[in-house]
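Case study.
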Amino acid sequence: KAGVTQTPRYLIKTRGQQVTLSCSPISGHRSVSWYQQTPGQGLQFLFEYFSETQRNKGNFPGRFSGRQFSNSRSEMNVSTLELGDSALYLCASSASSGGTIEQYFGPGTRLTVT
Amino acid sequence: GEDVEQSLFLSVREGDSSVINCTYTDSSSTYLYWYKQEPGAGLQLLTYIFSNMDMKQDQRLTVLLNKKDKHLSLRIADTQTGDSAIYFCAAKTSYDKVIFGPGTSLSVIP
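After joint prediction, the assembly is written out as follows.
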């Protein structure tokens, strides 16, 4: 089974620009969640999508948005980039069945905002 | 607000047991998780426990949950050098948000 893939792996953007990150989940997984990891704030939950619907959202401004397609692939978008958006963005693909949770993370996209 | 706390560092000798502790504030948390992050190896869901359970054992890992004290612990038996990593505790709140602790850096001394 192929793992979770994220593209691009590295990205450098300028303040004020916008960026779109992509995540392809494990085949059969319908849930995709996104996380931001920074040295200062640690790991923070961004949002979770299930069957193209956003199920919940973390405490991030509206500049952070996402969507999920019918094939479960997900994208997250950050508009009007700020220096503080520099981070490792992780996505995870998950499934649950009969009380068992399966979750796998992608390698992340390292975003640098200059 | 919702918060998850854990000690930042732990050092143990190879072969000993490691115990990583975590406290959380949302008493209505539904799931509690332990994640492992090794340099260059990404984040991995290690184990989890539902809030209606007190204990879960998975090979060398034992998770204990004390709901009254809002305390979660992860015990790793027979700790090996390959267990050296950062361990994150996380709680899924009643609003379905996941809150992470700052991570505990576990160093295993050969």
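Observations recorded in class. Chain A is about 0% helix and 60% strand. The CA atoms of residues 33 and 48 of chain A lie 4 Å apart. We will return to this complex in the next lecture.
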